[in-house]
Amino acid sequence: MLVELSVKQKFLTLCGITAAAMAASLAIGQRLIPQSILTGVVFYLISGERPSTVYASIVSLPRDIRTAIIFLKLNLCLYRYERAGATVVQIFERVVARQPNKVAFLMDDGQLTFAQVKQLADRVAAHFYAKGFRKGDTIALLMETRLEYPCIWLGLSKVGIVTALINSNLRKETLRHSITVANSKAIIVSTELAGAIAEINEQEGIKGLPVHLFRSDGAPDTASSSSSSDPLPDAEDLRLSLDSSGSSSSNVDLSAIPNDISPKDKLVYIYTSGTTGMPKAAVITNLRYTFMALGCYYMLSFRDDDIIYNSLPLYHSAGGMIGVGSVLLCGVTAALRKKFSASNFWTDCIRYKCTVAQYIGEICRFVLMTPPKPTDTQHSVRLMFGNGLRPQIWPQFVSRFNIQQIGEFYGSTEGNSNLLNIDNTMGAVGFVPNFAKAIYPVTLIRCDEETGEIIRGSDGFCIKCKAGEPGVFVGKINPKKALNSFVGYADKAASEKKVLHDVFRKGDIFFNSGDILVQDLLGNYYFKDRTGDTFRWRGENVATSEVEGVITTIVGLKDCAVYGVDIPETEGKAGMAAIVDPEGKVDLEQLAAGIRASLPAYARPLFIRVLSEVPMTTTFKLKKRDLQVDGYDLGKIQDPIYFLQSNGTYRRFTADDHETIKSGKARL
């Protein structure tokens, strides 16, 4: 009598039989039965899968075995750290003890060794503990990329203070919201961004918060600055305070700080626009930060002597969690840049002797658009990793710049569903082997591609997609495992919106990524689109409701719809706003000035369409989908369209502009 095996039993049985098959094939002198075929036959017998699935398992077996070995190493490392109760700070201090004099961060002509990072972090911890801040408090950090950036939040984490990593592009209401939604009790701001805090300093939720001003080296003391030139005259000079506490860790007494932080405690907040509304503060625990940093290190086979070129903002998960985390927890070196420059990309990589570089899709496109020059192949970069490299430019990029490996990954800051392409499969964002789905329970479920609404069967449960069928990417939530947990946002209501209940059986819960992907027969996943209204531009998520709210206020509460439109040869979607103005009263100069003042560059609509009629639904909403289909096609649209210029103003969009964009030659 045959007993039906559980998925877990099948996987364990397969592992055992695979090992036996390998031994058997080695024992047969002529290797009459290749181990992959033997394993595939056994897999078919115990799983009952279709022949096509068995074929795919055989073809992908070398990749899957290699992945299984690396994945095992990663999980053993994570298990040891979790078992020991190790936090990010504690893992970092092990790295420091091993290589105190190795350079951790490089930027411009400056550098910090691992010992110097620890010394500054210790001074930050001692200073804010002495100021009365305790475990569980939140401090907002508004600062552009600089060497000290990771040291500040690392030092705060020694006390158990959660740092809210604020997007340095935010201004006014969006900035105020980001600070207050995390329940911040203080603000640390660099001198370059002090004016942004001064603009909202008297507003609700901000007024009365202590502000700590971090000066750049060589900047005048705030104490010696006149109040007329100082936007924050009452702010503490944080650099002066830290410098006065001593130049080495031996001068800092940390004995009073309790050692009561666990891996599951919050480390930082990293902000994401999500699908609606203002930025949401995604909770990053010590455990999740460790998993993300170690995951890329192990799965992409980083080397201990690697130098990573990181020109991404440090308040984002890619630059601040994966890039910086590889330094703090794995001991590699990173070269930072304040602001990305396409023309200096390879020059910087050569200067710092980088062997690995990070990207987002736009970075690759901008670098590819630069004129060819000798530095294109004079660098030592063997691996580039990131997300958003378009399949259309992938082969051209790796060929021109002689990149041996692309590590394209997929995932959200807050999500539990992450993928990684480790075998150079062009266009893929990662894969999950067929036999490993019980260990890493992610899948695609059917949805309405236009609305993103989940489609359920007659039994009330969701329907898994077949190979080649687009669907929403979801991951099963297991709070007991770092790999599958979902901590969510600071706002619990926002967290619940990302959770699906009763997906395949009563009581199960899944994280809804809100993204539409496609999986092929070999287990490779390919990104297709984002559901809902949010779109991605310049490597940032743009929440349309936020932009609509700003524009509606500027134009006197007129109806406005914001949506993303495709631009040929460009990653993401550009913003387009449709404003209902039958009387022709919209002042474009005033609109442009208001947009510049209230929205970061990536959220400013590239196109403005002025509507003479009101295309409403029966629920009195603008027909956004119809507007999105029209896009900026002058052949379809009679309404005037205006085009964003480099100086932040709008001018009339012409047929020549349209042709330039269609040809992929526009520099946007």
From TrEMBL:
Q: Which Gene Ontology BP annotations are present?
A: long-chain fatty acid import into cell
One cellular component term (GO) for this entry is:
endoplasmic reticulum membrane
- What are the AMP-binding enzyme C-terminal domain coordinates in residue numbering? 546-621
Task: List localization entries.
Answer: Cell membrane; Peroxisome membrane
- So which domain of life are we looking at? Eukaryota
Stored Gene3D superfamilies:
3.30.300.30, N-terminal domain of ligase-like
Q: Where is the AMP-dependent synthetase/ligase domain?
A: 92-430
> Catalyzes what?
a very long-chain fatty acid + ATP + CoA = a very long-chain fatty acyl-CoA + AMP + diphosphate; tetracosanoate + ATP + CoA = tetracosanoyl-CoA + AMP + diphosphate
Topological category with respect to the lipid bilayer: Multi-pass membrane protein
Q: Which InterPro entries match?
A: AMP-bd_C, AMP-bd_C_sf, AMP-binding_CS, AMP-dep_synth/lig_dom, ANL_N_sf
User: Which Pfam families does the entry link to?
Assistant: AMP-binding (PF00501), AMP-binding_C (PF13193)
Entry's EC annotation: 6.2.1.3
Q: Which GO terms describe its molecular function?
A: ATP binding; long-chain fatty acid transmembrane transporter activity; long-chain fatty acid-CoA ligase activity
Q: What class of enzyme is it?
A: ligase
> Where is it mainly found?
membrane
Entry keyword set: ATP-binding, Cell membrane, Fatty acid metabolism, Ligase, Lipid metabolism, Lipid transport, Membrane, Nucleotide-binding, Peroxisome, Transmembrane, Transmembrane helix, Transport
Q: What does this protein do?
A: Acyl-CoA synthetase required for both the import of long chain fatty acids (LCFAs) (C14-C18) and the activation very long chain fatty acids (VLCFAs) (C20-C26) by esterification of the fatty acids into metabolically active CoA-thioesters for subsequent degradation or incorporation into phospholipids. The transport and fatty acyl-CoA synthetase activities are genetically separable and are thus independent activities. Esterifies VLCFAs in the peroxisome matrix. The VLCFAs are actively transported into peroxisomes by a PXA1-PXA2 heterodimeric transporter in the peroxisomal membrane.
Q: Hey, which family's this protein in?
A: Belongs to the ATP-dependent AMP-binding enzyme family.
Q: Spell out the protein name for this chain.
A: Very long-chain fatty acid transport protein
Species annotation: Anopheles coluzzii
Lineage of the native species?
Answer: Eukaryota, Metazoa, Ecdysozoa, Arthropoda, Hexapoda
